[in-house]
């Protein structure tokens, strides 16, 4: 049976920064099966809906797109939660196979999906889930700006959250057919997106992580703001005493260096975070220099 996707995208000021969104849609179009897109537009830019629709139609004439103006209560970063009532409704009705919510400048590829789908069940046996490390391309290098540290595997990496350390634990999972050395938990599990199958989606909509207020304590010392908490998924649900979150990313050896597999990397179609890091770092960490064994 052909899979189907619910894909919700926050599109604040929809006519601004169109190129990243169009690149994101191009990537989503490579996913297998049917895809329904839901663009959530902020109230302040409701007058731009027709022009926005015209841009999308001119680039993707066959796209199954829905344009939803969020009500006035979803002001500013609260817009990232405007999709939740509809998401809960379609999950309860079991309308789709998979459910995605993402920022509109995150590039989620077929390679990303295939990795997530292949390992979601085996990792679930370990109370883990396939995660992603965001990166930006800056000076032709992949910069892991959310996890900009030299991580010591299975040992405390100091000063990750203020003075608080984090242990980047490694896990071996059954069914590893891709030469991954291990799966590794990074200090920051934020990916700018979440993807859920039906089973996990039903758990999610009943959890504290699906509530804009109750989700805050879940992030503990990370103090994720409201926009970041909108894509938590089940990362902070049902943790064992030794876990800080459930998301892990695939580690490989490449050219004698421990690095992340491409399938576990998601591109943030911008350079603003890397640019800021470059102003205080003379040499930049990349995905190929972020681990110490």
- Give the low-confidence spans: none
Element-level helix/strand string: EHEHEHEEHEEEEEEEEEHHHEEEHE
Please outline the major beta sheet. Answer: 5 strands, mixed
CATH architect. name of the largest domain: 3-Layer(aba) Sandwich
CATH class membership of the largest domain: Alpha Beta
Can you tell me the CATH topology of the largest domain?
Answer: Pyruvate Kinase, Chain: A, domain 1
Specify the oligomeric state. Answer: single chain
How many helices in DSSP terms? 8
The coarse overall form would be: globular
Mean pLDDT: 95
Q: What is the strand and helix layout of this fold?
A:
Elements: E1 4-11, H1 18-28, E2 34-41, H2 49-59, E3 64-69, H3 84-92, E4 98-103, E5 106-107, H4 110-124, E6 129-130, E7 133-138, E8 141-143, E9 151-152, E10 156-161, E11 164-167, E12 170-171, E13 182-184, E14 193-197, H5 198-204, H6 215-218, H7 226-229, E15 247-254, E16 257-260, E17 265-268, H8 272-278, E18 291-292
Question: What features would you describe in this structure?
Answer:
It is built from 8 helices and 18 strands. With 293 residues, it is of the alpha/beta class. The protein folds into 2 domains: 139 residues, Pyruvate Kinase, Chain: A, domain 1 (3-Layer(aba) Sandwich); 127 residues, no CATH class. The strands form 5 sheets. Strands 3-2-1-4-14 form a 5-stranded mixed β-sheet. The longest helix has 15 residues. The chain is globular and about 55 Å long. It starts with a strand and ends with a strand.
